[in-house]
Amino acid sequence: MSDRRIWSHPIISFKRGKRIFFNFEGRLVEAYEGESIIAALYAIGVATFSWSPRFKRPRGAFCMIGKCSSCLSTVNGVPNTRICVELAKEGAFIERQRGPPSMGFEGPLFNNQVEKVEAAVDLLIIGGGPAGLHAALTASVLGIKAALVDEGARLGGQLIKQTHKFFGTRDYYGGARGFEIAEKLSENIEESPNVPVYRNATAYGFFSEGVGVIVRYPKPMNIVFKPRAVIVCTGAMERGLEFENNDLPGVMGAGGAQTLMNRYGVRPGDKALVVGSGNVGLIVSYQLLQAGVKVGAVVEIAHSIGGWFVHAAKVVRLGVPIYLGHSIVRAMGSERVEEAVIQAFDGEMNPIPGTEKQFNVDLVLLAVGLMPDYTILSQAGCVMKWVSELGGLVPVRTMYLETSIPGLYVAGDAAGIEEATTAFIEGEIAAISAAEKLGYANADLLRRREKLLDFLWNEYRQAPVVERARVGKLKAIVSEEEMEEHWRRSIANGLGSPRSPHIFQ
Ligand SMILES: Cc1cc2nc3c(=O)[nH]c(=O)nc-3n(C[C@H](O)[C@H](O)[C@H](O)COP(=O)(O)OP(=O)(O)OC[C@H]3O[C@@H](n4cnc5c(N)ncnc54)[C@H](O)[C@@H]3O)c2cc1C
Ligand code: FES
Question: How far apart are CA 4 and CA 266, in angstroms?
Fold first, then answer.
């Protein structure tokens, strides 16, 4: 039985919970309290989590944060459970699904075993990454009756898996490691008397009664929040890439691998090929080496490195070649990736015959970009716009981050892919804007918002490296007249109210 657990790491000391056991298809599997089911399964070498419906091809898990549905399994009789965010529990019964499950199950969601409660709050913050945490801390200081929900077991979003020192200004934690920032901010918000935190809690939709949030742990609950304002900070999802056999287990998002190794201390494989040389690809390559995973190469289809020189220099110094003008064209293997083939591409993105190179790897990590997680915004009925500079569909908004539904705000990567510094700032701006509508703001606070906006637009976003995001964010802001029209329509459709921001009260 393979043991992929990382027992020593140069940066992280993994605090594992109590040793427990669960039943996986008739086999007893060891896990630690606080880790996901998938982490425990990866630790013993399981990499297949579903099969294609027609040809029964084995398929792996991709995102590890509950966004892609590639790990749906039956847990204690409840089908379609995302085992990458479901925590391992003593004595649980886990089974992978082979095709669509039956609806005839006796799970807690169907037989009303889950308690349904209502909660009236002034402000609901969905997502506890950098944007949500700063929004929550602002609400806490202002004494707003708020709640923060996050579907992960720990707060911090992307930060909790970042072992590198963050770039950015000192005011926004530049020089600190991501997971340390997450720990500090989480401690601060956990102490807030007016902003209770719900972890393992997924906001699943807007309804006429309120916002539905299912809490999975420690006590299953279905909470219907009735907020007067909402800030959506749901972050981003990783992109896939087309190539032969891209569904083989072992092909996963770079962030997925980060979650396994930096969050749970489990090696995602033995040797990797990393596709994409932006900061994510370069940082993940370095983190793989720290976790004891070999890196065969980084490939980049562009003819220059996408990320910061300092990150590229680090991996090259450690002997990892970076192939520019190359991309992956094929993965090979029967049950999981065993080899990967890369090929050179010309300036018009055509593959150059005879340039293939083969790597013996069991892991192909895709670091080819992120797209905003807009699902709940779209479901709520926000007017969306395609902005390629921001990674795809984003809600249109005002300068103060209010969307086309009065009282519904957006901040961070969900508003367009940028980075943690801007997510912190946007979280605070959105919270001040919500506070203004809710009647909590004063002149000092509004001056603070102007100062933040000035810094964001006239200093931070002036740097050439963030030019693309700046252009994109400008495209997503609509004129006052256009927004007034959206609000009128939205209110006519029953979303928001003329007494804005009373969305649900
Ligand atoms: C490898 C890598 C390195 C990076 N390095 C840097 C760096 O050095 N400096 C920098 O400034 N930035 C860096 N970034 C970018 C930065 O981490 C992100 O831009 C930032 O985390 C975005 O913050 P966010 O709050 O918008 O989203 P996230 O951090 O993605 O947080 C979103 C949160 O929302 C929760 N959530 C999502 N949907 C729901 C739902 N329906 N219900 C409840 N909760 C939900 C998630 O669980 C998550 O906790 C890096 C990113 C990566 C991947
Ligand atoms: S939803 Fe579980 S791996 Fe993506």
Answer: 5
